[in-house]
Amino acid sequence: MMKRCMWVKTTEPLYVEYHDKEWGVPVYDDRILFEMLCLEGAQAGLSWWTVLQKRENYRNAFDQFEAEKIIQYTDEKLQSLIENQGIIRNKMKIYSVVTNAKAFLKIQQEYGSFSSYIWGFVDNKPIINNWETVKDVPTSNEISDKMSKQLKRDGFKFVGSTICYSYMQAVGMVNDHTLECFCHPSR
């Protein structure tokens, strides 16, 4: 039997697959990086499981996270999102996706890609941690603090340090699989 990080306390296939194939795996695709930033913001105050179950609904509701389309959203479109029971219907979180799409496109213009910008926080190389247990894994660090402050300065919303650290884990900027987990790079 494969050992996984202790936070995977279920055999739910969607959750297990997320842990095994996505969490901690480096992502460089701008659209996926934008999607994950928006989903991590949607998670604020909730569990990742809640968001993960709604991810396909989010993709459909937000045009596959195509920022160029999102910045064109009308008041009617935003109201339909607020009424969409397939996503988290928090008005501030929904509006933040539009705000973040604008900031994302500006970053792409300035840096050539969002990937270049965001990966610059870790010197373009994943950080591999060696935590014994899930209790050792932090919820934020100096890098997520710096990232949060810069993202806010650049116009992003729902990007506090804890959200940024969770984002870093989700897109593989930091690998926090515990040492006993079969996904840890030492295995």
Your description of this structure?
- There is one protein chain.
- This protein has one domain: Endonuclease III, domain 1.
- The two termini are about 15 Å apart.
- It has about 190 residues and is mainly α.
- The protein has helices at about 15-20, 30-45, 50-60, 65-70, 75-80, 90-110, 115-120, 140-155, 160-170, and strands spanning about 125-130, 175.
- Helix content is about 50%, strand content about 0%.
- It catalyses: Hydrolysis of alkylated DNA, releasing 3-methyladenine.
- Hydrolysis of the deoxyribose N-glycosidic bond to excise 3-methyladenine from the damaged DNA polymer formed by alkylation lesions.
Set out the fold topology.
Blueprint: H1 13-21, H2 30-43, H3 48-61, H4 67-70, H5 75-82, H6 91-111, H7 114-119, E1 127-128, H8 142-153, H9 161-170, E2 174-175
Parallel strand pairs: 1-2
- Biggest sheet details: 2 strands, parallel
By secondary-structure content and strand pairing, the structural class works out as: mainly alpha
Query: H/E order of the elements?
Result: HHHHHHHEHHE
Poorly predicted runs: none
pLDDT averaged residue by residue: 96
**What is the tally of helical segments?**
9
Q: Architecture, CATH level 2?
A: Orthogonal Bundle
Under CATH at level 1, the class stands as Mainly Alpha
| Strand content bin | under 5%
The total domain count is 1
Which value, in Å, is the CA radius of gyration?
Answer: 16 Å
Overall 3D shape: globular
- Total strand count, please? 2
CATH superfamily: Hypothetical protein, domain 2
**CATH topology term:** Endonuclease III, domain 1
Q: Output the strand order for the largest sheet.
A: 1-2
Oligomer: single chain
How far the N terminus sits from the C terminus, by CA atoms, comes to: 14 Å
